[in-house]
Amino acid sequence: MAASSSSSDEPSRSVFLGVDVGTGSARAGLFDEEGKLLGSSSSPIQIWKDGACVEQSSTDIWLAVCAAVKAACSKAKVASTEVKGMGFAATCSLVAVDSDSSPVSVSWSGDSRRNVIVWMDHRAIEQAERINSSKSPILEYCGAAVSPEMEPPKLLWVKENLQESWSMVFRWMDLSDWLSYRATGDDTRSLCTTVCKWTYLGHAHMQHVNDKESRDLEACGWDDDFWEEIGLGDLIEGHHAKIGRSVAFPGHPLGSGLTPTAAKELGLVPGIPVGTSLIDAHAGGVGVIESVPQSEAADHDKEAICNRMVLVCGTSTCHMAVSRSKLFIPGVWGPFWSAMVPEYWLTEGGQSATGALLDHIIEDHAASACLANQAASQKISLFELLNKMLETMMVELNLSFIAALTKDVHVLPDFHGNRSPIADPKAKGVIYGLTLDTSDKQLALLYLATVQGIAYGTRHIVEHCNAHGHKVRICRKSTHYLRVAAFQRILSLFRNMLILLVPL
User: Fold this and answer.
1) 169 with 243: CB under 8 angstroms?
2) What are the average pLDDT values for consecutive 10-residue runs of the chain, which has 504 residues?
3) Which domains are assigned to the chain?
4) Where does the record place the Carbohydrate kinase FGGY N-terminal domain (predicted)?
């Protein structure tokens, strides 16, 4: 009783919950009104990989979300009544559910749990090529070609290969939209997901951007001719019921808020507002692109963000830039209107494997296990150990900078295709300079060369975007990073690599 009385005397707090579902885990963060992080937690999610096919379970993802939210609230000592609103961000994976919202298999295995085609799944390369051969005007808004990582090729693959599943699916949803739907029961889709991954034309809603009263809008941005032409005309039926009859600008409240069922599962209070979702990278872009270093605060204006590019790093890397006018850039996704920053056109470049590539290079090496044990004994990460080794090697060889260590080792990082600006999902990676050396020093060099290859890829994207109308400037004095923990492995080197390899 005393504890209860004490808590009732404390001033009421307003706490806001953000849920981010990445490729390997679900994360929950609690923030106060000033944006200060009060506490966070994560929970792993299962993933199945079989060649080009990469699948997950929406049921497993929701359980991970619930576990992360409860753990975050417990760690931060936040009561359920203090949470005043929440929102979701997630990978642009494709979810299939039936009329009862139960999972429908998208897997050759027939396992109904496996109802999510993960963003990085490349099974639909052939379907993407056929869609691109149509030369539809819609393709202008995704770099002149859809990627197998987008939803139309994946949908076409399921229709052509899993007929029974295709006939059972009642809703096809982007993962972040499904999470919002699971939380609220509202089937409204996000302008972010539909525009960036489904070929929806967001600029059809230009006149509604300042309509504060509108929670959702009739989906008037679908191009029916496109769906008919690529063999998916049945998705037009019922006013596009299976892919989205209504859309909303990101952040708009959905339905009547959190349903009683979802609230119980999450340990929260029914009815709290749930905002329309964003793709995970785009949520990061919103959080970073308008942040201004103290030294530049006086010069901040609406045009300043058009000189920036946000790198959102994790399993892959997304390169996000915005402009006041639409810029058509071959091999780079977009222009997407209001998909990230309201009333700005988004350009989205990317590298399909960055963090995942570093993991692959390290884990596949003979010295990996030994180095991991050394790192554990020193109570540091494997990446910290590799960075220390490289610094020592630089001193021993009397070199003036770390990058010079790899003069004979080079990595082309297209191990999972090239998303931008070559836009070739069939591209392959290359390691040049291999010898019979399997030492830990050789692994350190491979690690460094991979970081350099990733940085060169970023340079290629920046230069390509600037050659087609962007005016991205690289700031040497300060660099903003999002999801630092997910990419901690390369930050100590990556900052230097950008300066060394991407000269102004």
Assistant:
1) no
2) 40 89 96 94 97 97 98 97 96 98 97 97 97 94 95 98 98 98 97 97 81 67 97 96 94 95 98 96 89 56 85 93 96 95 94 95 96 96 96 96 95 96 96 96 97 96 96 60 32 34 31
3) 15-282 (3.30.420.40), 355-501 (1.20.58.2240)
4) 16-287
Beta strands in 234-363 (DSSP E): 246-248, 274-279, 310-313, 317-323, 333-337, 345-351
Q: Are 221 and 189 in contact (CB under 8 A)?
A: no
The Cα 66–Cα 84 span in angstroms is 17
- Please report the pLDDT score of residue 492 as a whole number: 34
In angstroms, rounded to a whole number, what is the distance separating the alpha carbons of residues 362 and 370?
11
In what side-by-side order are the strands of the sheet with 48-50? 48-50, 53-56, 116-117, 94-97, 171-174
**pLDDT single digits (tens) 219-256:** 899 999 999 999 999 999 999 999 999 999 999 999 99
> Which residue's entry shows tokens 């300043």?
304
What integer pLDDT is reported at residue 65 of this predicted model? 98
Beta bridge partners of 485: none
Helices (DSSP H) in 108-230: which residue ranges? 125-133, 151-161, 163-168, 175-184, 191-198, 224-229
Strands (E) in 221-291, as ranges, are: 246-248, 274-279
Residue 294: partners with Cβ closer than 8 Å, 6 or more residues away: none
pLDDT digits over 382-391, tens only? 999 999 999 9
Residues ≥6 apart with Cβ < 8 Å to 465: 309, 319, 321, 327, 329, 332, 347, 349, 421, 472
pTM of the model: 0.87
Nearest CA among 421, 504, 423 for reference residue 460: 421
Q: Which residues contact 279 (CB under 8 A, 6 or more apart)?
A: 89, 90, 91, 92, 174, 176, 192, 193, 196, 197
List residues bridging with 415 in a β-sheet.
417
13, 64, 57: which is closest to 36 by C-alpha? 13
- CA-to-CA dists, residue 186 to 244, 246, 438, 468, angstroms: 11, 10, 55, 39
- Give the number of other CB atoms < 10 A from CB of residue 6: 9
Residues in the chain: 504
Judging by beta carbons within 10 Å of its beta carbon (0-12, 13-18, 19+), is residue 188 exposed, middle or buried?
Answer: buried
Structure tokens at 483: 């999801």
On the 0-12 / 13-18 / 19+ scale of CB atoms within 10 A, 129 is middle
Please state the three-class secondary structure of 372-441 as a single string: HHHHHHHCCCHHHHHHHHHHHHHHHCCCCCHHHHHCCCEEECCECEECCCCCECCCCCEEECCCCCCCHH
pLDDT number for residue 488: 34
